[in-house]
TrEMBL record:
InterPro entries (alphabetical): GAF, GAF-like_dom_sf, GGDEF_dom, Nucleotide_cyclase, Rev_trsase/Diguanyl_cyclase
Designated name of the protein: Diguanylate cyclase
Transmembrane intervals: none
GGDEF domain boundaries: 382-505
């Protein structure tokens, strides 16, 4: 038995397979129907749909056979994905690649095998649709064409699923938002005022919303200070805080210190901490004790990314309430859940917006982001520049070296240009090999220098011939006119370089 060699672009093929998120998923009727139809059309007792992973053959659907999971070294399908057309093994017992294969010598006793590759739009063969028989079973060219047609149908279904998944990301984020909102409303019986504010984070913004909630909590708890703290790296800062109007100047100036000491030890804590006598805690700060702080409560609100949030309430010595009562704790923790839910919703919404504005191939901003951002540059009142870019020779790269190589060129060019541009610049991929830069008004030479750097990096990947650039400045007209002007100048630059290349060619080569 001989194991199949790896395809030339195995790493890219595995990435293409992972992109569909199909491995280890449960059976699905649509794929079961395809295998039944394959067995019926080709008159075989068994048909199966397999995907070839890094070290295994994994079966998504099968008819007439129990299961088709196997090590890749034993996989017939690992040989099938090495070619563009269906592979037929008329008698596996006589084929040196398979005569001692466990699936030939034992169950399912493969004698005849035919498999059609599942080829993605980018040209990667990620699996196979196969039929088998335990005896001689001649196949006609029309049978193999039907098998390939069904395999292409599987790929179309995978592409449809992928596109639907991408389209549903933003809708999914909105559904999660609604779910979290319901949870917030469940807390309304405990803290109606705070929950009402939590539903307004889109209008108020998280800081303003939390500031208003802190004011409500301060009054309800008879606390002297209530605030939202965040810990990020080594920094601890007050995001929103409300103090009693009569709070002494000494205590007012202690807000930064209140975010230190014990607070820093709560970075990984999930449980609230209530201190009746702050001064007795081993991490109590002398300045805070001297200022008269008596009681402090901290309610962790969770960690999002690298940022940990805490809700904190403080009472000073002499406060008529001398301990954190059960009702105080219930109120703080209910409020903490409400604020944490709002912060989660804000995070989900921001992530959904970011995904909707991001080009998945290059991670740059996409056309939607450009169309949203352009009016803001116009409304800003400052001078700015719009540059349109098009990669010369990119179509030839796709035609001669494949779309996977073309994608790599785009990623390298985008990454290099992002690094070369000033932080104030915004880079967008409109589609294909078209890019746009928005940046504060600057010398054209600065833009061209960054483009040259990116071109040199991309040329190391494939044979681009240049980058055509057209620029327009904000004083030259309104948005539509600027776009047309930059596009016209870019096209003129491309035509000019094309004529120069033709002129430079020897007459015999034209």
């Amino acid at each position: 038995m001989t194991s199949a060699p790896l395809p030339a672009q195995e790493y890219a093929r595995l990435l293409a397979l992972a992109r569909y998120e199909i491995l280890d998923t449960p059976p699905e009727a649509v794929f079961d129907r395809v295998t039944r139809l394959a067995a019926h059309l080709l008159g075989t007792p068994a048909a199966f749909l397999n995907f070839v992973d890094q070290h295994r053959q994994w079966g998504k659907a099968a008819v007439g056979i129990r299961g088709t999971n196997a090590d890749r070294e034993h996989s017939f399908c690992a040989w099938t994905i090495l070619q563009d057309t269906p592979m037929v093994v008329e008698n596996a017992h006589l084929d040196p690649r398979f005569h001692d294969n466990p699936m030939v010598r034992g169950e399912p006793h493969i004698h005849m095998y035919a498999g059609a590759p599942l080829t993605t739009p980018s040209g990667h063969r990620i699996g196979t649709l196969c039929v088998m028989d335990t005896q001689d079973h001649p196949l006609k060219p029309t049978d193999l064409q039907a098998l390939q047609d069904l395999a292409d149908t599987v790929v179309s279904e995978l592409e449809l699923r992928l596109n639907n998944h991408q389209l549903q990301r933003e809708a999914g984020a909105q559904a999660q938002y609604v779910q979290e909102l319901r949870r917030t409303l469940e807390h309304a019986r405990v803290l109606e005022g705070v929950n009402s504010l939590m539903t307004l984070e889109q209008e108020l913004g998280p800081e303003h919303m939390t500031l208003l909630a802190a004011g409500l909590l301060r009054d309800a708890l008879s606390s002297d200070y209530t605030g939202l703290l965040v810990l990020e790296g080594n920094d601890v800062r007050v995001v929103a805080g409300e103090s009693q109007p009569a709070l002494s100047p000494a205590l007012t100036g202690l807000q930064p210190q209140l975010s230190g000491g014990i607070t820093r030890t709560l970075r990984t804590s999930r449980k609230p901490l209530y201190l009746e006598e702050y001064a007795l805690h081993p991490h109590a700060l002398p300045a805070v004790i001297a200022a008269g702080v008596g009681q402090i409560a901290w309610v962790p609100l969770g960690t999002r990314g690298q940022v940990t949030s805490l809700l904190m309430a403080v009472r000073v010595q002499g406060n008529p309430v001398t301990q954190w009562r059960g009702s105080d704790r219930s109120l703080l923790e209910a409020a903490g859940r409400s604020i944490a839910t709002a912060l989660d919703r804000q995070l989900v919404t921001n992530a959904a917006v970011q995904q909707a504005r991001q080009d998945p191939l290059t991670s740059l901003h996409n056309r939607r982001a450009f169309e949203e951002d352009l009016p803001r540059w116009t409304e800003g009142g400052q001078a700015w520049t719009l540059a349109m870019l098009d990669l010369d020779g990119f179509k030839a790269v796709n035609d001669h070296e494949g779309h996977a190589q073309g994608d790599r060129v785009l990623r390298v060019f985008a990454s290099a240009l992002s690094a070369a541009l000033d932080e104030s610049a915004r880079l967008y991929r409109l589609g294909g090999d078209e890019f746009v830069i928005l940046l504060p008004s600057t010398q054209e030479a600065d833009v061209l220098e960054g483009v040259d750097v990116a071109f040199l990096a991309a040329r190391q990947v494939a044979g681009l011939t240049g980058v055509s650039v057209g620029m327009a400045h904000s004083h030259e007209g309104p948005e539509p006119a600027l776009l047309e002007l930059a596009d016209a100048r870019m096209y003129a630059s491309k035509q000019r370089k094309h004529r120069l290349r033709l002129t430079a060619q020897p007459a015999s080569s034209r």
